[in-house]
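Researcher: Sequence of Nitrogen regulatory protein follows. Predict its structure.
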Amino acid sequence: MELRTILRPECTTCATPGSKKKVLELISDLAAAQYPTLSSQAIFESLVAREKMGSTGIGNGIAIPHGRLTDITQPIAILIKCEEPIAFDAIDKQPVDILFALLVPANQCQQHLSTLSCMAEKLSDKQVLKQLRKTHDETELYQVIIG
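Model: Prediction complete. Tokens:
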């Protein structure tokens, strides 16, 4: 998977959302701003529905919130580095500061799983994580993740 095909620089940000709900809203707003055919509310509802099934906080300060949408044909990614870690009900009970959100077409289940797996693998690389956490702006954050 070529990450730059699903992650736009405009969907990469450093922020201080403060809570799980606020970061899911931020993800929804970033995606909707870049993809005008999408509704911020529909994105948010998709992410919340998935979180109700179990937290997407995978541990080590990382979360991979994701949702399925009927009105897209290609996956869309959003990367957020939280300046202050937030409670996210992660499996290790630790707060989260790196979120890689993924929105996928509802009918592409296998691609969805493959993309999630690739991202989890990339984010489990200690060197990549260290670099992401050192970044101070969106451009630098984007360059580290696609590198």
